Amino acid sequence: MNTTHRHSDAHADLVLETHSLRRQVGQMIRVQRTVPAPADLGVDMIGVPEGSPLDLDLRLESVGEGILVTGTVEAALKGECSRCLDAIKEDLLLDVQELYFYPDKEADEDASRVSAEETIDLDPVVRAAVVLNLPFSPLCRDDCAGLCPDCGANLNDDPEHDHPDRIDPRWAALRGIAGGEDLDRS
Ligand SMILES: [Zn+2]
Ligand SMILES: [Zn+2]
User: Fold this and answer.
1) PANTHER family from the xrefs (predicted)?
2) How far does the centroid of ligand 1 lie from the alpha carbon of residue 58, in Å?
3) 3-state class (DSSP) for residue 4
4) 168 C-alpha vs ligand 2 centroid, how far in Å?
5) Contact 69, 121 (CB under 8 A)
6) Tens digit of each residue's pLDDT (9 = 90 or more) over 73-92
7) Which ligand number lies closest to the CA of residue 166?
């Protein structure tokens, strides 16, 4: 049985060949393609599902220091509302701009680099852009009413929701204690 897993190559789809720029200032490549999203593109509550389409529309331009990448990445976000746990689906349009320095150029330690094979890796840049644009507490809508603390009903579906003969949990606890004492005495 062939167990080779196509998903393990997903990362490679975000590695772009830049050979044709030939380090000539002003030379440009337009990259328009759809690639599968890599794993772990997001946080617990919300993110871009692995393998879902990432639409790249990028311009790679040779500049003095390296290759300047500008453009957009479109992705579909999926997650859960942090108040009512309903599913959230949203389109994400990210602006991307990153300078990849040539291997022989001076740059900060954490600067993006063109590899010795003249490729650039978009993965860290896309990852940073996605995470920066994720809501800290995702909501299905700004005024999501959340869940009933007593029964867990979704209050968005039932705004009038109430428990008319609700027993205060503190009273319920006291009753339990009183009942216990009765038993002890008998
Ligand atoms: Zn909600
Ligand atoms: Zn309730």
Assistant:
1) LARGE RIBOSOMAL RNA SUBUNIT ACCUMULATION PROTEIN YCED HOMOLOG 1, CHLOROPLASTIC (PTHR34374:SF1)
2) 34
3) coil
4) 13
5) no
6) 999 999 999 999 999 999 99
7) 2
